[in-house]
Structure formats: C-alpha cells, structure tokens
Amino acid sequence: MFRFDVSLKVYLHRDPVDFRYGMNSLSILVEQAMRLNPMDSSLYIFGNRRRDRIKILGWDGSGFWLMTKRLEAEHFIWPGNKTEVVTLTTDLLHALLDGDDITTIHRHPRREYLRVS
Fold first, then answer.
1. Cα atoms in the Cβ-side hemisphere of radius 13 Å centred on 115
2. Which InterPro entries match (predicted)?
3. What share of the chain is helix, strand, coil (3-state, %, to 5)?
4. What is the Cα 86 distance to its own chain's centre?
C-alpha cells in the first residue's frame, strides 16, 4: 500500500464521476466544480456511482498522475454531508483506501480528521 505524507492536503469530491474521465477531465472538475487548483500539492479523490472504485489525481510539480483502486468485495463509504468538497487527513485517506467506513471514525480531541469546506 502507498503511504502519503501527513502534511498532504486531501480533497474528496462528493458526487460520483464518470470513470471514463482521465487526468484532463478530472483536473477541469477540480478547477471548476471544486474551485481548487489542480496543480497544487494536494490529492483529489473521486468515486464512481457504485462506490466500488476511486480515482486519485495528484500533481507532482512536473505533471499529473492518476491512481485507481477497486475494492473487490466491499464499497467505499463516502461522508454524508451536503457539501461538494470534503477535506480529509492522510489518516482518513489510508482508512478509505483500506475500505474502512471513515464516517464512523471518531475525532481525537487534539487531531482533526475530517474537515468540511
């Protein structure tokens, strides 16, 4: 499994996306729908309608990269709030990638795991 730096910003797009979208379409979605800069040093997470696949878009300073994960027996659990963009910590990203239900993870008083923007 990949491990991501603790200081990395992670944004989750709430609505399902067409999984035929590639780097260009997803970067436009980041810019227009999420109103964020796709070329900053953040990760952007997108899910399909069935929530059995996710795509993660990232910029490394010289180009975009795109990672895809498919869960074989389960579904990814998306937060149920109504905002379009959810900010995750890398701890929650790792839990999401493991197939855990990130909506049931409780906050530690000193650490903020899930922020809604």
1. 11
2. Transposase_IS66_Orf2
3. 20, 30, 55
4. 8
